Amino acid sequence: MLAASEIAAIHATVRAAGDQFLPDFRHLPVPQTMPELQARLTDIEARCMAALQGPLEAAFPAIPWLAADEFGLSAEAAELPAEYWLCDAMDGAIQYAQQLPGWTINLVLMRQNEPAFAVIYDPLAQELFWAQAGAGAFVNETPLRPSTKREPGVMVAVFEHTHGLEEDVALRQRVSEALAILLGTYGIVRNYGPHGLQLAYIGAGRLDVFLQVGRDLENWLPGLLIAREAGADVLTADGQPWHWAADSLLVTAPGLGTTFAPAHLPA
After folding, report:
1. Is residue 162 part of a domain?
2. What does residue 40 show for φ and ψ, rounded to 5 degrees?
3. Residues 114, 32 share a domain
4. Considering Cα of 149, then 210, then 66, then 112, what sign does the dihedral take?
5. Same-domain status, 18 and 134
6. What CATH number did the domain enclosing 95 receive?
7. What are the DSSP calls for 131-169, one per residue?
8. What is the pLDDT of residues 2-53, one digit of tens each?
9. What's the CA gap between 90 and 95, in Å, rounded?
């Protein structure tokens, strides 16, 4: 377990990393070409990682960093370090570049192939969602609690999909079927951008169901811990307990994954 002083240091670092982007938000022009967009995203990543790595390497010199591209979708748990920081820079960087809300700074500390501590910071809302394994989940200092809804018609479900749909016809079909089931099951179906923030919102009771068909592990891990520690159900798309190798994620308020997820939801 991290000490209170260590948690405070992580919170301060993540807040500073996110707040540095506020002065430029909606003051930089929206990129109009692919080279412009790529340059903007590269700059965002470099600034974010510099703001995170320096302070946290000083505070936790024994913990290595693993970039999202090093982690990789095909990474085997047995090949990873026993403990490491995992960060995909700004989650929702496209929203930031487009002058839209819904961009966050996400960080997770992994131990023995499980998320041990996670932070998701929304600078615009000044909300810092965080959790430590076995110790609950919070937004700033307020404990998180999932929704208690039981009527599908008033539930808000969100969906995500991985990259590569244009090349993978079978995955595109699975995503289409899953979205159709959500639309036919829940009263409101939306997408709110960053994976982590949507998962944190499940923990906070602001959303009721999150579904993604297709593997996106490094984007799931911070929000997965926060949602789980808040009391949400963390499952695969077919309602089974979520596991490291799963290629889908269904996170719901308690009981919804088995009560309202149709049995034919694609795995």
Report:
1. yes
2. -65, -45
3. yes
4. positive
5. yes
6. 3.30.540.10
7. EETTS-EEETTEEP-------GGG-EEEEEE-S-TTT-H
8. 999 999 999 999 999 999 999 999 999 999 999 999 999 999 999 999 999 9
9. 10
